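Study this pair:
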Amino acid sequence: MSDGTDRGGSVFWGGFWMILISVLLCWLPGIGGFIGGVVGGKVSGGIGSALIAWVVSSILVGVLFATFGTLLTGLVVIGFIAGLGGIFLAFLDSGARLLGAIIGGVLA
């Protein structure tokens, strides 16, 4: 029996869409993250789920940058330092993604 608060959202898919749209729209700094946050927040189904999806997606993007930086260079220290630059860029975009996630959660 539902009390009307279950909106059928998914934190996993919300985070997935936040990452995918942010990566595809990386050429629009800030705006791409905002759009990804709105879509991901709406898919998550509510503000609480959207915030969890935002945290998970921000951490995952940072880890992916560090990992791929290491794999592409073949040198652990150089790749990790290059990955840290990517993490910095991801965190710049995460503020817009947070605002979008809150708005998308409200719209869900």
